[in-house]
Amino acid sequence: MFQICCKISLLCCLLFSPLVSADSIASYPEGWESWPVVKESVNPPADTVVPPDTSLFIQEAVKAYSWINNGEGSPLTIRVNPKKLEQYKTHGPYTDGPTAIAVSEVQGIIWVTEHFGGLPIYGSYNRKGQDISSMHPTLEPEFCQRCHETYKDICINGTCTEPLLDAYK
């Protein structure tokens, strides 16, 4: 019964949070710097032309984050909570707590994916742990939620499997 109530509460939070604020829902994971790097990719520069056969997910990601580092792009590092490495290898299901982060290395943006009641929740922070989700519409948890829900074939259980660099191989 408790799990059902938690999931209903989380669902209400996800549905109604856009009406209240754009604050991060996922918590800032202290000690993320020691989490293992599982992937490296990029936030590409604004003038990037993606190959025509690139997935819609990658095309949308390139367009959404073209503002990073004043349009100059940034290396992107993906780290996973060491307690969830085995879960990450199969993309879940995930236990509760911080799961993974993506770090825009130049801009210092940290996108957080956390799981609660089996559902993914999202947040955006700077390196000091300050919530920056209101800095840009693409940093708001609702934006993350919408994208990850839209591309469930790539973003399985809230973690995405298609790094941008693969589009150029």
TrEMBL record:
Keyword tags: Signal
Residues annotated as signal peptide: 1-22
Protein name: Cytochrome P460 domain-containing protein
